[in-house]
Amino acid sequence: MASPGSGFWSFASEDGSGDPENPGTARAWCQVAQRFTGGIGNKLCALLYGDAEKPAESGGIQPPRAASRKATCACNQKPCSCPKAGINYAFLHATDLLPACDGERPTLAFLQDVMDILLQYVVKSFDRSTKVIDFHYPNELLQEYNWGLADQPQNLEEILMHCQTTLKYAIKTGHPRYFNQLSTGLDMVGLAADWLTSTANTNMFTYEIAPVFVLLEYVTLKKMREIIGWPGGSGDGIFSPGGAISNMYAMLIARFKMFPEVKEKGMAAVPRLIAFTSEHSHFSLKKGAAALGIGTDSVILIKCDERGKMIPSDLERRILEAKQKGFVPFLVSATAGTTVYGAFDPLLAVADICKKYKVWMHVDAAWGGGLLMSRKHKWKLSGVERANSVTWNPHKMMGVPLQCSALLVREEGLMQSCNQMQASYLFQQDKHYDLSYDTGDKALQCGRHVDVFKLWLMWRAKGTTGFEAHIDKCLELAEYLYNTIKNREGYEMVFDGKPQHTNVCFWYVPPSLRVLDNNEERMSRLSKVAPVIKARMMEYGTTMVSYQPLGDKVNFFRVVISNPAATHQDIDFLIEEIERLGQDL
Prior knowledge:
Layout: H1 23-37, H2 39-49, H3 104-125, H4 138-144, H5 156-168, E1 178-179, H6 188-200, H7 211-228, E2 236-240, H8 243-258, H9 262-265, E3 273-278, H10 284-291, E4 299-302, H11 312-324, E5 328-335, H12 347-357, E6 360-365, E7 389-392, E8 405-409, H13 414-419, H14 452-485, E9 491-493, E10 504-508, H15 520-526, H16 529-540, E11 544-550, E12 553-559, H17 568-582
Parallel strand pairs: 1-11, 3-4, 3-5, 5-6, 6-7
Antiparallel strand pairs: 2-8, 7-8, 9-10, 10-12, 11-12
Helix pairs in contact: 1-2, 2-3, 3-5, 6-14, 7-14, 8-10, 11-12, 14-17, 16-17
């Protein structure tokens, strides 16, 4: 595939002239926003740069005012000449919007009001005085609102109310005190890119209908392969609908590489295949085996040490056992950043074993791949360059809006051979451009969402150094949490030593349990602590953090930090909130 070249498309170092914190840049942005969005630009600038009062706290989006039946303008012109003048949504329906005749004015007014709702939500997501969640039980929400679908259309006033209601009960995943999942935060450039992607509303299967997006996918995947360490960024890859699908792609390609006849003849034509992964690996490996007809019994779980890292000697032992039974080891999936402990398997040792027994090496770096952007932390993935394939989810540690997951493959052309079906209505061989840019035939999907633009635009806005600062800050916050609680009364760490990733795993032990011997009764009572505290967190709406059991360990908290908006004060708040909500248990 020919290179699209440098310049606009490439990832170059920026001089900082576009820094949004620069006052001149900020004001210039405001002028542009006002020019293209009418009153919306002024409102956002006022909220972001302090030219207006902060929105009143409500714990959620307020229901529409009585005056909301008419679109409200902010053009400050008398007489008003903006698109919202004279618009009454109570008498308008979707059929009055574009492409309806004379639909331009109501369309602009409606979309501007939708944008107002979105921008209010964005700003509140960063306001620590707002709730992370306005929790209601499922039956309460079902009874409180009529969510049913009807034969007759509702008017646009009701449609705007639905937008407000939906966001009122949405989880503010960008809130600085949301620590519940691996994907947190709300990046403004990524958000803008997501809006643009939806506006373009195209498909990724051919260059003819997604020319810029196809080129950006080519450029971005090449850059990611360079960072992994493959010479010149050689190889292949694709953006897929999440890490589970990326891992399944790796399993599919590894099987095809060893037994290409399986594509036409199916599993009946190949011997019993065995995959190996750690006992702390993601469940998607077994799901992929089930989906591909390999079977979950053919996924062998390798023992881990006390920190959650795969033990190489056990991997080699299990490979030899499988071979002695006449089975064929075809894939080892090492994990770089396990879901619970944040552990990094010893990739160099795993690579040596894979090379020795001629087994495909996959690295599931969905969670830990972002550390490759950090000069301080990338050593934790030493050996990843020896992998045959790598899963990397920028929507996790790098803060790209969901979804954004990449599967990178070292051997170019293998994905195409494995998956292509040469549908003649899409992939005509007599097109007038380079057909190597019609990438859809190497995907399992036909329709494929544009996931690359969010990552590419954020990379242009932040530079590699910006991602590095983001990742270093999150890891520093995790270390701060660990150092704060490791010797604090009422806390017990799940494993000894500083975490390798931002996963901090611990038990909170209420005063009533601190005097008990470490026996079965204590463990039984301790297992109930985290679920109760989590439920109280959600009902108060103050913060969110995950918990789970693992192996013989009863329910413990797992705090993960991937949101650069979080601060030391937010970590302190989390600790104090856990103690406040759990001290009486």
